[in-house]
Amino acid sequence: MDFQLTEDQRALRDGVRDLLEGRFDRAALRAAVDASERAGTAPLDRELWRELGAAGFFSLTLPEAEGGVGLGLPEAVLAFEEAGRVLLPGPLVATFLAAGDIPGAASGDVMVTSADGSLVAWLDEADVVRGDVSGAVPARSVDPLTPLHRLPAGGSGASGGAFRAGAGALLTAAEQLGSAARTTEMAVQYARERAQFGQLIGAFQAVKHLCAQMLVRAETARAAVYAAAVTGDPLEVCGAKLLADDAAVRNARDCLQVHGGMGFTWEADVHLHLKRAWVRAGAGRSAGDAEEALAAAL
Amino acid sequence: MDLTYTAEEDEFRARLSRWLARTLPELPPPPDPLDWPGRRAYDMGWQRRLYDAGYAGLHWPVDAGGRGATPTQHLIYLEETEKAGAPYVGANFVGLLHAGPTIASEGSAEQRARWLPPVLRGDEVWCQGFSEPDAGSDLASLRTRAWRDGDHYVVSGSKIWTSHAEVADWCELLVRTTPVSESVPKHRGISWLAMPMDAPGITVRPLRTLAGSTEFAEMFLDEVRVPVANRVGDENDGWRVTMVTLSYERGTAFVGEVVACRRVLGELAREASKNGRWDDAVLRRRLGRLSAEFGALWRLTQWNVSESQHTGGVPGVGGSVFKLRYSHARQELYDAAADVLGPGALDLGHPWALDRLSSLSYTIAAGTSQIQQNIVAERILGLPKGR
Questions:
Q1: Is B249 annotated as catalytic?
Q2: Which of A13, A127, A154, B141 has the highest local Cβ count within 10 Å?
Q3: Taking every annotated instance into account, which residue ranges of this chain make up the domain Acyl-CoA dehydrogenase/oxidase N-terminal (chain B) (predicted)?
């Protein structure tokens, strides 16, 4: 047993991080948010999408014979964690899952979304839609960078179990993990710079304890997400998604709290993490269903 | 990332499991929890069996009499012994997990030869004299003084939360050998002594815990004479001596307990199915979430053990993260058990009722959650020290 990242896995993670930091840094994130505000809907950067495709982001787990990179789920999880860190927008998971089935998805030329649960993301922008989306009506999405449609009650348009307890849920959990780790860093950085009452706020126990708990949530979720990627066990995936959702949502809230009044402004990035974490937590099976599945297996 | 075990590790597991299956039925019935001499005899008898079978000090270095097992083998050992229902390390806890490794790492050749074999054989019991009434989680504030008088230290002060003091032969004692001053910060000036528990001037007063048992005691030291030769490490270097070895345990300290918690969770589900509580969806989902929780804690344990294998034992982020999360999860588990049992949870005759009470200590012992959070925030996240 050697449950640590291999050299290759570290290199892959660093490579994806470099690519995303160069191509979708904070300025790009805020520009995308501003553009979304102006247009009334989030635009998708097609060029970036193709660059991701060219870098092998969508074809990481496809066999080399099919033009893929031939890696496994653990590597895909590391890549999606990085996407989660920078809040990369777009139906990344659905397109990834379609690579190999839908021509053009792997290369990033075709953007794929799927109906899962009662919401569909990026319906207007997508080239291909998997699942039944009849009767979908536009919603004003809480997340400025994830346009949403709602499906009529009863019509859950599920695109198959693969997303619900399999790779889709796992990759979504990986994005949540990346966000949870990032908001921890943001809170710590702010607490080390911001002075109040004559000292840095990070010197206050009340603030320290918020930050420490954020790290605990992120690292516990990391162990769960990585292990689920290695075993592929559906129940472990359920557990990993539960813990990663919890870490992303609660860490974003605590990060907001550490930022104080600044945290409640549009200008701080914290709300973007929280809103995306909510959207991802709502994707796939509900927390209650996942808990029931885990309980049934006891 | 590889969660499969090597052929060698599988073979180690199989051999251990066969030995446990053969040996455990031969054990005498466990003693009454309140019978301390009985518990000592039982725990030491188990240690002797481990010694004879070559499993004593599995993770200790070979030159200290141990087996020099890898962290993964130690993990397998703890997992298998818990699964098989083998006795807990019990009265031998401090000797095997704290004092022994400290002496193995920091002691002289004579000290190692004198103190290590009896721990491994199950002949001598150690207790831990670290905490004081004004220095618990803030251990560096300890005040028990030691003066030099020829080739002896003369020790006066008091200790508290001294586990197994009633039946111990030796005490790993932290004392202040240089008073705190402008030039001597509180972490300096502390020395590590091996104190014989039969020395004149030691008074042990058992403390009754809220669970009714006497796991630990208060200890009053009135001019107790301890040979200077019993000091492990340099004078005034006791803090480092202590920290070096204690931190290494954090990866594996709770392996058996995580395995036990996962087993208890399964038992809760079966009990709930029997008594009708399973129909309560809120309770069911709580158990489902706890399953995710303990599953993650088990994976975090494997992560920490693998990491320590790479770093040669230098602790990473994982140990503190684990301690914080696990101590609370354990309390949640036994609160859920109380919900499953209903009024039965108030009957001390049920083992879960006692386990629920003892779980209350987990967020306090070995550094309260609040102190742990300060440690994580300052040492791992790099936040500024508070006043």
A1: yes
A2: A13
A3: 6-123
Give me the domains of chain B, ranges plus CATH numbers.
Answer: 7-121 (1.10.540.10), 126-235 (2.40.110.10), 240-380 (1.20.140.10)
Domain-ending residue, one of A126, A150, A174: A150
Residue B292 tokens read as: 């995710």
A247: CATH: 1.20.140.10
Site from B291, B327, B363 to mutate, A interface, most A CB atoms within 10 angstroms? B291
Please report whether residue A156 resides in a domain.
no
- pLDDT single digits (tens) B20-43: 999 999 999 999 877 888 999 999
Considering B9, B235, B249, B271, which one is annotated as catalytic? B249
State whether A198 and A173 are in the same domain.
Answer: yes
pTM above 0.90, yes or no: yes
What's the ipTM? 0.94
Quick check: helix, strand or coil at residue B288? Answer: helix
In 3D space, the residue among B236, B196, B237, B225 whose CA is nearest the CA of residue B105 turns out to be: B237
Distance CA B55, CA B296 (A): 28
pLDDT, tens only, A149-186: 999 876 554 444 444 558 999 999 999 999 999 999 99
| Whole-number Å distance between alpha carbons of A256 and A270 | 6
Structural domain ending residue among the three candidates A150, A185, A202: A150
- The boundaries of the domain holding residue A266 are 162-296
A33, A146 Cβ separation under 8 angstroms? no
Contact state of A295 with B1 under an 8 Å Cβ cutoff: no
CB-CB under 8 Å, A212 with B373: yes
CA–CA separation, B225 and B234 (whole Å)? 18
Residue B175 host element (H or E)? strand B170-176
- C-alpha pair distances (Å), B84 with each of A77, B93, B267, B364: 35, 19, 15, 29
